[in-house]
Amino acid sequence: MKSERFLRGVFGVIIFLMSLFHLMPFFRPRDLKGTARNYGSVFPALHIVQFGDEQYSKTMAYYTQSIRRLAACDLSYDYSFKLDNGQDYGRSEGMCLYTSKVDVIRQALLEYDIGDWILWVDLDVFYAANGCDRFEHLVRSKVNGSCEFSSLTSPHTINSGILFVKVTPAMRKFVSEWHARQVAVNYCVGPADQMTLQETYLRAVNSTYNGECEHGHPIARNECFTAISPTESRSVDGFCFFQCNDTFQTHDCDTVHSSLDDLFWHGKIGKRYLTVPVRFWILMAYLSNTNNTYTVVLECAVVLIFVLCCAAVLFMWKQHTDHHDHIGIKHEA
Q1: Residue 10, pLDDT score
Q2: Cβ(251)–Cβ(257) under 8 Å?
Q3: Is 75 helix (H, G, I), strand (E, B) or coil?
Q4: What's the rounded Cα separation, in Å, for the pair 129 and 286?
Q5: Using a CB cutoff of 8 Å and minimum separation of 24, what contacts does 22-25 make?
Q6: What are phi and psi of 44, to 5 degrees?
Q7: Helices and strands: H and E segment counts in the chain
Q8: What is the pLDDT of residue 295?
Q9: Residues near 122 by Cβ (< 8 Å), separated by ≥ 6?
Q10: Of the residues 157, 202, 224, 232, which has the fewest C-beta atoms closer than 10 A?
Q11: In sequence order, what E strands does the chain have?
């Protein structure tokens, strides 16, 4: 009798907690594009673009899903994945993936309306924040006013893993020149398209630059780039860069490793953070559709209570059945 009352009480607690916090997916479905909120975005429209072959996109599915989650959280965002079929974007002419990447960005700028924004994201980038609020807040601090091109700039490079590009005649011209330079060298080792991006940038903002950083080893070319264009003076003429202390993404900075505070995790170093606890945290944030850390912590606690309650139920059930089996054995004796 006491066991039955206990079991009813446990089930009552479970049902109450699940209905109170709407935790489980069948109680509270995640936001999809049709129910996404409009944050009054800094972007009139943000087109998130990725590119890769089918096999690698499957390998990085956990990463690309996080980018799709970002795209689904605001009505002004959309997402497109450009499949590498071995023919388009110069692939049939022998262009490597890095060169085709620049062509994807170039064609996207021609496809979308003047004033829209394109967010290019490499396939090895993970969106680590929950919802749009932090993304919008951080981006708004950089991508505003006369800004037309934004990415991370570390002490020695401009990183091209995550790029914000505004659809303007100037940026269409700039990216076309970047693409032409990349096609000419088809450089696809190490920093790949970053080398030609930096060279195109120098030619766009520095009237005295005469190509002296376009030869030699990539390290020497980066050092030349830094000498001509120090980090603190790179945000000019429509270019506005995230710095290593902005918690935008720090994997590509020289002295700081990726951290859980980053908006994006980029590359293999980021993968070490995708442990079971972190994946569990991301899942709870995803299901709860909230940007409030307190709420996510609370819902994680609810899940823990739910698991403990289930364990208690199983333990009581086993005790109950063992007791009856023991009585049955006694009767038989």
Answers
A1: 62
A2: yes
A3: coil
A4: 10
A5: 23/287, 23/288, 23/299, 23/302, 23/303, 23/306, 24/287, 25/287
A6: -65, -35
A7: 11, 7
A8: 54
A9: 50, 160, 161, 162, 266
A10: 232
A11: 46-52, 77-83, 117-121, 125-127, 149-150, 162-166, 264-266
Q: Radius of gyration (Cα) for the chain, nearest Å? A: 26
Assigned token pair, 122? 């490499």
Q: How far apart are CA 221 and CA 187, in angstroms?
A: 14
Q: What's the CA gap between 211 and 113, in Å, rounded?
A: 33
**Residue 234 three-state SS:** coil
How much is the average pLDDT of 125-142? Answer: 83
Q: Helix 97-111 vs helix 169-185: angle between axes, to the nearest 10 degrees?
A: 160
**Per-residue pLDDT tens for 1-58?**
555 666 666 656 665 555 444 444 333 334 444 445 565 677 889 999 999 988 888 8
Helix/strand/coil percentages in the chain, nearest 5: 50, 10, 40
H or E element at residue 182: helix 169-185
pTM for the complete prediction?
0.72
- Provide the pLDDT for residue 31: 41
Residue entry with tokens 């050092």: 223
pLDDT tens for each residue of 4-19:
666 666 656 665 555 4
Structure tokens that stand for 95 in this block = 């262009």
Strands 46-52, 77-83: pairing is: parallel
For 66, what's the count of Cα atoms within 13 Å in the CB-facing half-sphere? Answer: 22
285-317 confidence digits (pLDDT tens): 545 444 445 555 666 676 777 777 777 777 777
Among residues 171, 196, 194, 28, which one has the least CA distance to residue 110? 171
Burial class (CB in 10 A: 0-12, 13-18, 19+), 288: buried
pLDDT at 232 (0 to 100): 83
| Structure confidence at residue 88 (pLDDT) | 84
